[in-house]
Amino acid sequence: MNTTTPFASAHKASTNNVKVNDTPLTFELLEKLVNEQKLNNTFLSIKAHGTIKNLQVRVAPKQKKPYPDFGKVAANQPVFNYENVTGTLVGDFGNDLYTGVMAGGWHIHFISDDRTVGGHVLSFDTDSVDLKIDIFDTLNLHLPTNNTDFTKHDVDFAGLHAAISQAEK
């Protein structure tokens, strides 16, 4: 694989899932659902399709070598606001227990049906989406051990954790 994506989370559909049709949805309602279903300590993913009444996303501009650190990239991402856009929300959830492997909490992206709007979701609300929540019991982590940029990189963990925390707000 030859790619410059610094991190990706991917999965196949789970056979263990919850489906809810025609439901309102916000970050707060997702948290409520996780608590009610006692899913706090699991890995989850969502896929929801419908019209989003209010949507705020950020998008990282394309980067070039020498790549800036995550904090600088996150601090300079433009933010966009949209109303009544139809598309798909996809995202992952991990308890703070798993911070380091992933950012704790929800991490959601959006893409419009016409592919003109997208990005990392900062906020959203909708009256009605079709929602599927996949529940996972396994995590596989793949590291680029043949990439010398990765193996020789000296990570500033305190700075990285602070940057992730700031970016996920």
From TrEMBL:
GO biological process: acetoin biosynthetic process
Protein name: Alpha-acetolactate decarboxylase
Pathway where it operates: Polyol metabolism; (R,R)-butane-2,3-diol biosynthesis; (R,R)-butane-2,3-diol from pyruvate: step 2/3
GO molecular function terms noted in the UniProt entry: acetolactate decarboxylase activity
Catalytic activity: (2S)-2-acetolactate + H(+) = (R)-acetoin + CO2
Domain of life: Bacteria
Keywords: Acetoin biosynthesis, Decarboxylase, Lyase
Matching PANTHER family: ALPHA-ACETOLACTATE DECARBOXYLASE (PTHR35524)
UniProt xrefs under InterPro entries: Acetolactate_a_deCO2ase (IPR005128)
Enzyme Commission number: 4.1.1.5
Similarity field: Belongs to the alpha-acetolactate decarboxylase family.
